Amino acid sequence: MFDFNWYQNLIQPPLAPPAWVFAPVWTVLYISMGVALFLFARKISFDKKTWGYVLFFTQLLVNLSWTPAFFGVKNIGLALAIVILLDILVLLNIMEFWRISKTASRILIPYFIWILFATYLNFRYLILN
Fold first, then answer.
1. 3-state class of 78 per DSSP?
2. What HEC string does 83-119 produce?
3. How far is CA 121 from the centre of its chain?
4. Would you say the C-alpha torsion 93, 23, 17, 62 has a positive or negative sign?
5. Please, how many CA atoms are within 13 Å of residue 20, restricted to the half-sphere of its CB?
6. Which residues in the chain come in under a pLDDT of 50?
7. Other CB atoms within 10 A of residue 21 CB
8. Spatial distance between the Cα atoms of 100 and 108, rounded to a whole number of angstroms
9. C-alpha of 33 from chain center
10. What does DSSP assign to residue 70?
11. Cβ count near 88 (within 10 Å)
C-alpha cells in the first residue's frame, strides 16, 4: 500500500532524521496524546469539554490522513496542506485543553513541536523533489 522505497529515493532535506527515528518518536507521542486525553476527560462535566473532544479527535483524524497522502498517493503538496492544517488544529487543541487541564495541555506541546518539525521537513521535501 505504501511505497517506502519511494521515500528513500527522495532528496533528503537538511535535518532529516534517519527513518528508524520515526517509529519510537510516534509511539511516545501517541502514548502522550492518550495520557493528555485521559487527563482532560477526567476533569469536570462532559458539556464543558465538547469542543476539546472535537478538536482532539479531528486533529487525530487529520494526523492519520497524512501518511496515506505522503506515502500512499505520493502527493507531497497535499501532505503539506494536511500537516499545516494539523499544526493549526493541535495548537487550538492545546489552547482548549488549557482551559480544563493545564497538565494535559502541556503534555501535547512536544507533539506540537514535532509536527512543526514535520511541517518543515514536508515543505523541504516539496521544494527539493
1. helix
2. HHHHHHHHHHHHHHHHHHCHHHHHHCHHHHHHHHHHH
3. 13
4. negative
5. 0
6. none
7. 10
8. 14
9. 10
10. I
11. 11
Find out whether 50 and 60 touch, Cβ atoms under 8 Å: no
22-51 as b/e: b if 16+ CB within 10 A: eeebeeebeebbeebbebbbeeeeeeebee
Question: Is the pTM here over 0.90, yes or no?
Answer: yes
**34, three cell numbers:** 492518550
CA distance 24 to 125: 22
Q: pLDDT at position 93, please?
A: 98
CA distance 95 to 86: 14
Q: Collapsing DSSP states into helix, strand and coil, what is residue 16?
A: coil
E strand or H helix at 7: helix 4-8
